[in-house]
Amino acid sequence: MNIAVFASGRGSNFQAILNAIDDGRLPARVALLVSNNSKAGALELARSRKIPAMHLNQKQYSSEDMYEERLLELLERHGVELIALAGYMKRIPVKVIDRYKNRILNIHPALLPAFGGAGMYGIHVHEAVLASGARTTGATVHIVDEEYDEGPIVMQKAVDVLSGDTPETLAARVLLVEHEIYPKAIAVFASKRVRIEGRNVWIQ
Prior knowledge:
The protein is α/β, with parallel strands linked by helices. It has helices spanning about 10-20, 40-50, 65-75, 95-100, 125-130, 165-190, and strands at about 1-5, 30-35, 55, 80-85, 105-110, 135-145, 155-160, 195, 200-204. Helix content is about 35%, strand content about 25%. A 7-stranded mixed beta sheet has the order 3-2-1-4-5-6-7, with helices on one face. α5 crosses α6 (about 165-190). The chain is globular.
């Protein structure tokens, strides 16, 4: 399966996906890397692996329609069948969500539906977890729809919140779980072992 990875930062989940492909755990090929940030480490990682890498930002275009059409054209040209958001900090255009319905995945650093929604990204999620007094957090892979962090859940794994945790220490442990479950979730789609009925996701 040809996948596109969208990333805004250093690309640690992108690296985890590449590692899984290299190890034979993920029957897929990264056909394209897209970033809204021209200085993203993920772009350099893609170029070092000879993966087509594109900096694409809505500000480069005079209208949202032109940006959406350019993005769709790029995905089609590279034969993309699945999109994996890996620390991508921009909302996906509705036209792209419609074209790739149930074929866009995201990894979120909490156990959705808890600690999701607008403003819940990166270290802010772990700060909110600690402020709430929650004893457990984790990571979630979900399908992307029009609302932030509300698409059907594909896979989750819990992480204990430890006494003395800071947002940074908690983030580091959750990130390890992200790297574990995201390639597994993508592999389920790549090997066509998933069935989606409404908001229910069945792994076969």
